[in-house]
Amino acid sequence: MSLLSVQDLAIRFSTGDGTVHAVNNVSFDIAPGEKVALVGESGSGKSQIALSIMGLLAKNAQVSGRILHEGRDLLTLSQDALNKVRAKKIAMIFQDPMSALNPYMRVGRQLTEIVELHEGLGRADARKRAIEAMEAVQIPDAKNRIDAYPHEFSGGMRQRIVIAMALICKPGLILADEPTTALDVTVQAQIMRLLDEIQSELNTAVLLITHDLGVVAGFCDRSMVLYGGRMMETAPTKDLFAAPSHPYTRGLLRAVPNINDAAGELRAIPGSPPNQLRPLTHCPFAARCVDAVEQCRSTLPELTGEATKRACLRPVEALS
Amino acid sequence: MTSAKARLQSQAFVEDVAEEMLSSRSFWADARARFFKNRMALVSVFMLFLLVLFAIFGNVIAQWSYEEIDWNLLGMIKEEGGPSIANGHYFGVDELGRDMYARVVQGSRTSLLVGFVAGIASVLIGSTIGAFAGYFGGRFDSIVMGGYTIWLSVPYIIFFVVWQAFFGRSLGQMILVIVLVNWTAGLLIVRGQVMMLRNREFVDAARMLGLSDVAIIFRHIAPNILWVVVIYTSMVVPEVIMMESLVSFLGVGIQEPNTSWGALISEGASTMTFGTLWQLAFPAAFFVIAQVSLYYIGDGLRDALDPKDRL
């Protein structure tokens, strides 16, 4: 039984230049307590998927497909009904802790507000909960720090508060949209370890959205690779790293610089991301793929496979 | 080791400084500190405070009421009607023989009351409409901006005359009509600020946490634009006093025998050629003190709340 089931999700934006096909027929499931990564480069549509789950897409977006959560389609819910799902059932951790906190509100108030709204707690109880939440994300001296303003915290501490905001109602699913991108590497590690601890303690499902494969490797059970708004490959993280099946995944993994690599050369994937103004008629990666054949430029492969699923006519293992 | 270095490394210095470094300094605490460093603004606050005290308690030492005619002075106002402690007319009498002191107290009451009540009310109304227009955008925004543009083309003095011809010239009507004329105060600036803030991530975060739009506007966005509203209010209050004085000066303001600074200045100006200058000087002095103080307070608030623009 899956907690969240995204079926055939497509997101388009009407812009001055035409219709941007940001997400094309993406389907996936997340089981309770599962840690799933959504990997992709900039513009691959990964953040838009998270925003569509929360119902926070920009006004010029058109969405089709279904996002089932506990049997209800989130895309058809009214704002009021959605407000009862947000924070309580599904919460989101934003990318930039510098801007995700209101600079003119004490952090305590930003935390208490949520439980006052969703759980009807009084001021004193809400404050107690806020202190608990701040202690859960290991903010030292939470009792006193609760009355501070966001600018009085460091970046890592602010991200902890953003995480505390997402966790305070103990939601079943957390969407973490590049939670460590704005932080430096040592703080990144701390935050990921913290997320891991909290995840195993509360048994919350996590959808981790990132372009950082290093973060994925250490955290997620399963990884999904997105390119040009289309799911390219989904596999258990271990298998994905050991034996990437889709040429794009292989390219991504090769592009990660390796300190033991004497060559010292950066192996980027040649070419640039596809123009999303045209609807997809063939594999979006074909133009950049070294293994592409004529057929790749005319057919759109389906996602197939057992544990490892890939949308490719010429998967890596079939070639070697 | 020099003595300065020794001091910097002493335990006493650490304890001294640690307190300050640890204490939470909010935006408003910083702003308050900056405001209190501004001497002109402080003097102005003091002057305005005295004016308010004068308006509230000035009547305690008045010997006459503001509508009572001193029949003894009638007919010889130019010779005997000047300021005098002896006959109890500290500021002299007006051309009808009424006590100027009591009338200036009454005029200050009216002008300050209208200025603050109408000024604050119009900024609150304008800012709220502006915030909603900026937040929701779309058709509501178009309607508000259309209304704003149309309203700019309405000549407000004619509006005053017509309104008061229909509804009378009481203090309440005066405040109401000024609020109506000024409903656009702060609208544009707040709309612009909200349009900018609406796209900030913390607004998305608030929406993600399930807050309603109204809660987001009043609880999350409002604290971010409060400083704009405060500065704007400090500019609108003297403007409203000016507007009230202008329409009273033109004779469509407050109803006699009630009076205001503008009405008193108007009366004083009409008799100044007869040599009864005190009838103009006292209300004009109060008016100028109020305006200058309010402008300096506004200036001080802007410096304190928006320090980016300072040198």
Judging from the principal axes of the Cα atoms, what is the shape of chain B? flat
CATH class of chain A: Alpha Beta
Looking across the biggest beta sheet of chain A, what order are the strands in?
6-7-8-3-9-10-12-11
* Element string of chain B (H = helix, E = strand): HHHHHHHHHHHHHH
Helix/strand-derived category of chain B reads mainly alpha
| Beta content of chain A | 15-25%
Give average pLDDT of chain B, whole number. Answer: 84
The name of the CATH architecture of chain B is Orthogonal Bundle
Portion in beta strands of chain B = under 5%
Largest interface: A-B, 31 and 21 residues
Number of domains of chain B: 1
Described by strand count, sense and barrel closure, the largest sheet of chain A is: 8 strands, mixed
Which regions of chain A contain 5 or more consecutive residues with pLDDT less than 50?
none
Could you tell me the CATH topology label of chain B: MetI-like fold
Order of helices and strands of chain A: EEEHEEHEHHHHHEHEHEEHHEEH
Specify the structural class of chain A.
alpha/beta
Main location (chain B): membrane
Keywords (chain B): Cell inner membrane, Cell membrane, Membrane, Peptide transport, Protein transport, Transmembrane, Transmembrane helix, Transport
Protein name (chain B): Oligopeptide transport system permease protein OppC
Subcellular location (chain B): Cell inner membrane; Cell membrane
